[in-house]
Amino acid sequence: MNYNWRGAVIRRLLLLIGVCLLLGFLSGYYAWALVLGLSLYLGWNLNQLQRLHAWLKQHQADESPPDGYGLWGEIFDNIYHLQRRDQRARGRLQAVIDRFQESTAALKDAVIMLDRDGNLEWWNLAAETLLGLKSPQDSGQSIGNLVRHPRFKEYFEQGKYNEPLELPSPINDRLRVNFQITRYGNDDHLMLVRDVTRVHQLEQMRKDFVANVSHELRTPLTVIAGYLETLLDNVEEVNPRWRRALQQMQQQDRRMQTLLNDLLMLAKLEATDYPADNQPVSVDLLLLSIKADALALSGARQHRISLEADATLQLKGSEAELRSAFSNLVFNAVKYTPDEGTIQIRWWSDAAGAHLSVQDSGLGIEAKHLPRLTERFYRVDSSRNASTGGTGLGLAIVKHVLMRHRARLEISSVIGKGSTFTCHFAPQQIVSR
Ligand code: ADP
Predict the structure, then answer these.
(1) How far apart are CA 217 and CA 225, in angstroms?
(2) What is each CA distance from 37 to 8, 48, 283, in whole angstroms?
(3) Which residues, judged by CB distance below 6 Å to any ligand atom, belong to the binding site of ligand 1?
(4) Taking the domain 279-432, which CATH number applies?
(5) Distance between CA 50 and CA 48 in Å, rounded?
(6) Which of 379, 387, 410 to mutate to test the pocket of ligand 1 (most atoms within 8 A of CB)?
(7) Is the pLDDT of residue 381 over 80?
(8) What pLDDT shows up at residue 305?
(9) 133: closest CA among 145, 142, 148, 146?
(10) Domain boundaries, given as residue ranges, for the chain
(11) Cβ within 8 Å of residue 372, ≥6 positions away
(12) pLDDT on residue 383
């Protein structure tokens, strides 16, 4: 109801003044009658104000407002309704929050909210079983104090959360958990932690199986290779017609041995996340010896191989692993570049880190193959591979070695013009001589 309170108040005031004037007229004291009337009015207003103040100060959620007369009564009622509306809205909001908390509490995955500095703000029940967070003691604690793994610390501080991180749980080594962080709001963090123990075990079984099979096959192959060599040495005495067959068997045996070696190398790389060695490696000298091997591999095919390397630039890591990765790239360039083609090897650094590139003037690779090139056994053209004797594991090894050395592989290629494989190493891996 839209009652005109302003008019009513003015009317009442005028009425009061009228009554006071009438009393003044009757008594002959106009001024005193007016002062008395207005003082009473002021006193009554102050009293209402004081009642309002007292009610606002002490009133409980449901306590109705004091009775008021006129505009004051209206003010009391309006404030009361405003408060009730506010309470109802708060109640609805609380119900939504309760439902949200109940549903996240029922999740098997841990959900953790962190502020921009990584301090814990809220988490669900699963976070307590997976990470051992304790409610309410851990509230406000830094996540780095609770998940102390150095890789988690590095992952969190780096702030690049495109890839999830997998680690053993801080409370139980047998549990394997996967961390996925997303930023939201005011640079706050939402962290999802999943139990991936089962997937990890299956993955481990696959790795162990491949490693064991490769290992077990090595001995029979060595025995076969030994007998083939003896047979070939004495082929004239046994049966000269077997020479070709034996030579082919020997060739295939060697191929299987390189395949097994590559598989074992991959299994070894997969077994740990970091190279055991973390010594400064003189990449320039390493490349020099790889270049010599590449020239030997090229032999009569006469490739022109150039090397430009910054001799002051060393890399932290495992020399054996880096040799394997770099030589795979250089030998591939030799394998897939026609005779007398050029191959350029460069090793340099800039603000983004250190870089090694191997550029060839070879066959080139179609763009659609590039994203899949580092997959195991992925080949652009299987007939191409038969002539080069590759295993299809070379670039998978390169990728793994680079990952362990905080580096990534970039491949660019133009069909018929050649390809460039570039390894980008993070600045932290560089050691300057
Ligand atoms: P492979 O043992 O077959 O060489 P890799 O994993 O080293 O296996 O390479 C995968 C595939 O990528 C190769 O089969 C080849 O088709 C292609 N490839 C690798 N390097 C080059 C290159 N420099 N030029 C053209 N193609 C290449």
Answers:
(1) 12
(2) 18, 17, 102
(3) 328, 332-333, 336, 360, 362-363, 365, 373, 378-381, 384-385, 390-396, 419
(4) 3.30.565.10
(5) 5
(6) 379
(7) no
(8) 96
(9) 146
(10) 3-101, 108-195, 201-271, 279-432
(11) 378
(12) 61
What is the C-alpha R_g of the chain? 41
Query: pTM of the full predicted structure?
Result: 0.71
What whole-number distance in Å separates Cα of residue 388 and Cα of residue 318?
28
At 2, the pLDDT band (50, 70, 90 cuts) reads: low
Least-confidence region, from 6-10, 183-187, 298-302: 6-10
Spell out the CATH class of 201-271. Answer: mainly alpha
The reply to whether 201-271 and 279-432 are identical in fold is no
Q: Which residues contact 142 (CB under 8 A, 6 or more apart)?
A: 117, 118, 119, 120
* Overall average pLDDT of the 276-280 stretch: 84
Both tokens of 120, joined, read 């814990």
pLDDT tens digits for range 74-98: 888 888 889 889 999 999 999 999 9
The pLDDT, as a whole number, for residue 354 is 95
389 CA distance to ligand 1 centroid (A)? 11
Q: Is the pLDDT of residue 1 over 70?
A: no
Cβ contacts of residue 324 below 8 Å, gap of 6+? 265, 397, 401
- CATH for 108-195 is 3.30.450.20
Q: How far apart are CA 335 and CA 298, in angstroms?
A: 8
The CA distance from 259 to 237, in Å, is 32
